[in-house]
């Protein structure tokens, strides 16, 4: 699959932009802050329902506008698919597929992409929430229905935490919280599915992760991944070395989850928060048997994060009926030495479409520079086959944006807006 055309209206610093794309590599070049990343961020949003830079949608809508429109023409073989998304400042977001209304959570079923950006260094060095988000975004692309499961889990978790805080404020004893059992049951059902899905994904990632790391570094540092589960007593806020060498329990996930909630209920009531579940889990990234966080050098951490993204792309390529995901490298080559730049360019050569952003064109290996598009101040200023961005939306675009909203209004039950960062 590749993006044949990308159109933006009132997205970030673009009043309007249209860009023709095609298979192979395209480099978006421009000084920092000109809007290169905004273009690829929009493509990533269609695949993951979230931005890799911000947790909410408001920052994606151009100042002074009520909504932003992202429109992508996806091509696979002789089939084309028009995907449209309207991000609203007020109310639920709207989506269309070939001009027919769909729920926004359906978009990842059709738009697949993997984006690597400087922020991904936090996958290795950052907090557990970053690694959870990485896994969940990949899960959603592979199995879109899990977006609904994640949203349901978050709602149940919020309700349960509210009940715990209320009970703490009222001084209720543990044996008086009978209504908590209802929320516990639902939390266990939803949370156990997410835990099992993450565990299966980690198992699948191990082999392509090792292959991707070797391809980039040309050395075998034994990259690995070990789940750290709160239902088994692990504390993601503690020393991650506790996870090294841990073994999985033979008891079912639901039973372990339910037992953990029962044991920890007094402590949860004392603190007014749910202490176990997928929202508290982590995955330890290992190099040579040691946690990469705290032991890996900057270069090793950068290579590990990149290898994780390439491994994710390999899984999507293996599963998808629509071919390769769009591979996006946002300002990646500036952080790599010449040898690793060349090795990375070789590793990604087989993907149908690769989009690269760079502040300095010389940082990008020659095999990836067949097509170059220059970006300046929210405008596409040149590039083969490009349609220049204008200072304000044209009438046709405005009418099309209205079509998204009008068609979506016909839906009998608009869905509740969900941010991928909260999933």
TrEMBL record:
Region annotation Disordered: where it falls in the sequence: 391-423
One GO CC term on file: cytoplasm
Binding-site list for ATP: 30-37
Composition bias type Basic and acidic residues, residue spans: 414-423
Gene3D superfamilies xref list: P-loop containing nucleotide triphosphate hydrolases (3.40.50.300), RecF/RecN/SMC, N-terminal domain (1.20.1050.90)
Biased composition (Low complexity): 403-413
GO terms for biological process, alphabetical: DNA replication; DNA synthesis involved in DNA repair; double-strand break repair; SOS response
Chain ranges of the AAA+ ATPase domain: 22-379
InterPro entries: AAA+_ATPase, DNA-binding_RecF, DNA-binding_RecF_CS, P-loop_NTPase, RecF/RecN/SMC_N, RecF_2
Keywords associated with the record: ATP-binding, Cytoplasm, DNA damage, DNA repair, DNA replication, DNA-binding, Nucleotide-binding, SOS response
Compartments it resides in: Cytoplasm
Primary location group: cytoplasm
Entry's Gene Ontology molecular function annotations: ATP binding; single-stranded DNA binding
Family stated for the protein in its record: Belongs to the RecF family.
PANTHER family in alphabetical order: DNA REPLICATION AND REPAIR PROTEIN RECF
Function according to Swiss-Prot or TrEMBL: The RecF protein is involved in DNA metabolism; it is required for DNA replication and normal SOS inducibility. RecF binds preferentially to single-stranded, linear DNA. It also seems to bind ATP.
Name by which UniProt lists this protein: DNA replication and repair protein RecF
Protein's organism: Agromyces hippuratus
Gene responsible for this protein: recF
């Amino acid at each position: 699959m590749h993006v044949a055309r990308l159109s933006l209206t009132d997205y970030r610093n673009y009043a309007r932009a249209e860009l023709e794309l095609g298979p192979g590599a395209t480099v978006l070049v421009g000084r920092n802050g000109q809007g290169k990343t905004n273009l690829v961020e929009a493509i990533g949003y269609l695949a993951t329902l979230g931005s890799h830079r911000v947790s909410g949608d408001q920052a994606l809508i151009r100042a002074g506008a009520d909504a932003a429109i992202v429109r992508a023409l996806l091509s696979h073989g002789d089939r084309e698919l028009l995907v449209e998304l309207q991000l609203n400042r007020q109310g639920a977001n709207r989506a269309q597929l070939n001009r027919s209304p769909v729920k926004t959570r359906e978009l990842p079923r059709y738009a697949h992409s993997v984006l690597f950006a400087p922020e991904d260094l936090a996958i290795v060095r950052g907090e557990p929430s970053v690694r959870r988000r990485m896994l969940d975004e990949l899960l959603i692309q592979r199995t879109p229905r899990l977006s609904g499961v994640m949203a349901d889990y978050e709602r149940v978790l919020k309700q349960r935490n509210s009940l715990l805080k209320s009970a703490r404020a009222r001084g209720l004893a543990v044996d008086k919280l009978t209504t908590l059992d209802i929320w516990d049951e639902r939390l266990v059902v939803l949370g156990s599915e997410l835990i099992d899905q993450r565990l299966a994904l980690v198992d699948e990632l191990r082999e392509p992760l090792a292959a991707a790391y070797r391809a980039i570094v040309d050395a075998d540092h034994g990259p690995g991944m070990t789940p750290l589960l709160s239902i088994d007593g692990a504390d993601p806020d503690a020393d991650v070395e506790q996870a090294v060498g841990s073994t999985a329990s033979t008891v079912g996930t639901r039973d372990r989850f339910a037992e953990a909630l029962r044991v920890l209920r007094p402590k949860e009531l004392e603190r007014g928060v749910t202490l176990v579940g997928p929202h508290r889990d982590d995955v330890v990234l290992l190099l040579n048997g040691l946690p990469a966080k705290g032991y890996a050098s900057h270069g090793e951490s950068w290579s590990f994060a990149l290898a994780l993204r390439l491994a994710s792309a390999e899984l999507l390529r293996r599963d998808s009926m629509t071919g390769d995901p769009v591979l996006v490298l946002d300002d990646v080559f500036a952080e790599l030495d010449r040898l690793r730049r060349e090795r990375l360019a070789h590793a990604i050569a087989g993907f149908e479409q690769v989009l690269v952003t760079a502040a300095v064109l010389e940082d990008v290996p020659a095999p990836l520079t067949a097509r170059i598009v220059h970006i300046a101040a929210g405008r596409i200023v040149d590039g083969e086959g490009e349609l220049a961005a204008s200072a304000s939306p044209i009438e046709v675009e405005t009418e099309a944006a209205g079509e998204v909203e009008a068609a979506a209004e016909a839906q009998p039950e608009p869905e509740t807006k969900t941010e991928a960062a909260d999933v």
